[in-house]
Input
Amino acid sequence: MKILKESGFSAEKIVENGNKFLIGNGYLGYRGTLDEFGAKECVGLNIAGLYDGVAGKWRETVNAFNPFYCLICADGAPLDVRGENIFSHEIALDMEKGTFFRETVFSVGGGRVTLFSERFISAVEKDLLCSRLRLTSEKNISLHITAGIDADIWDLNGPHLCEVETHCGGTFAEASGKTQELGIPVRVVCTFSHPLKRVRGGMGEISINLKAGESFVLDRVARVLVGEEGFSETDFLTAQEAHRREWARLWSLARLDAKGDARAQFALDYSVYHLLILAPKGNYSIAARGLSGQTYKGAVFWDTEIFLLPFYMDVLPQCAKRLVEYRVNTLPAAREKAKSYGFGGAFYAWESQNGYDACSDFNVTDVFTHRPVRTYFKEKQIHISADVAYAILKYYGRTQDDEFMLRGGLETVLSCAEFARTYSYYNHVKKRYELLDVIGPDEYHERVNNNAYTNYMFYLTAKEGVALAEKFLKKYPACGEKLLENLPAKILEKLKEWTEKLYLPQPNGEGIIEQFDGYFRLEDVGVEEVRSRLCHPNEYWGGSGGVATATRVIKQADVIMLFNLYPDLFSEEIRRANYDFYLPYTEHGSSLSRCSYAIAACNIGRREEAYSAFLESAEIDLRGGGKQWAGEVYIGGTHPAASGGAWIAAFYGLGFGKKEDLQ
Ligand code: BGC
Output
């Protein structure tokens, strides 16, 4: 039984449970909040791939109006979980059915009134979400229900919808608005199984007398319509049946077997659930915080290519294709970005919003001075382009999808390599190309030279890209010109010369690859020592003045990531030496880190260590863990990359589930 339950109510857990009990269908996400909650309680109906920016604030994904607001009074007493008249309260997420449940029993006038509600976002129709509310009472009571569309939206950097109009009457309610920046219409329409009398905005009321032992049921069927999308009617049960059928199909594809280990099984199921609710339904990719809200601007990071793609390649190949196509479709924007910095090729957005880089120059706020801190993620985390190329090559390796490669896949890989080539600098003394002034996966050390992960990743993807291009030119001579038409003349020769002379840091006497030039010279202290130097719990560890900056303490797996992506590049002895060396310096300040070490531990035969790192990663959102703050910026939400990384460790490393189980 894949059911996550929580009994009792605690106001402190409202935000955390919003993430933990999230439902979604790859396009829409609805946080695990309650019927009577509003913007203050972070109710969120998040839309993937729809972005809006308000002047002077960060652009982020849009949250839609909430069609499931409902406040009930029984004999004049509000049925609100925050009240005093609570007899019992439980919420549940049925992962098998992609459905959220709540049941609260209230004491009203000496009798008990039960409020039961369930909701799901259709796994079949991308714009559809449904809710059923059932009220039962031990005694005869009068019920007064205020239900409808709440147009007061929780936003981090909003408001995003303007010219808001609301309507409610009979069995229908509607709220519509337009995004501020592009004027894209967003409409939420909702039909009710019982007529309402309008009270205000998109809200109406129902007054009934409920007899002892009987139930009152209110179904709500809503659609979120973007642009010119039209409304079509359905009912709760029809939608529910199709939805459940689709979830059964999804689980039949995705189910893994933790071989009798109940804790691992639950954690794994929970991770798989999150990956399933994020599978894109259209031409967009997956945001770093999934559909749990607007954190990280709803933008797409390298998380998708490196931590999520493997799951989709094995379980939902058509989604894997969407993910790689997203990068091919945004190639023009990546070329623009490269050009804007004076480079050739394609420099992908560090935080991609349909290709546009949402990463701000000041991504962190100092907790002491409240001043913005200059960060260089956008300009210097160039490995993003190697990650994109890597993902496309992996996808091709698996699918042999020549058509995709000819339609832009290969051009994208070569453009990423070309970017690194033009970014690099030729050191005439050492007679080699170097990649200077970069940030590797470890974001605490900015603007370093020759980050090993970055150099190797560009080297390997460029080499593979060139070899593949040569193969394609032979196989499809007629396509030759087209394939290279948007690339500089003699690109393949240039890239060959470049890879031959690109500097690749080698293991030292102890077998350790230096993370970047000069890393070994940094202060040799461990994570706890550095933590003890913090003056504020939310202080930023990196940047120019962070506690970790002058030390060997790193935010997340860095050199180790290279071994995970290319396990055969170095001997097991070297991989083990680096694992043992870097682990004590790793703070795991990113949710991408534990699973990376889990995968690395699997690759060097350390099953026990791998197992506990896998659990840490798979349970991150069950625990409500992960950093909530970077300086003064809220970064809470779900952690899809941790789920994806845990899945990789479980499936490829720990042997949970057989490959034949997956198609
Ligand atoms: C990590 C990045 C990651 C981003 C989004 C940051 O904290 O350092 O590697 O891409 O979060 O998950």
About this structure: The radius of gyration is 26 Å. Residues 288, 296, 301-303, 441, 443, 555-556, 590, 592, 641 surround beta-D-glucopyranose (CB under 6 Å). The chain has a mean pLDDT of 96.
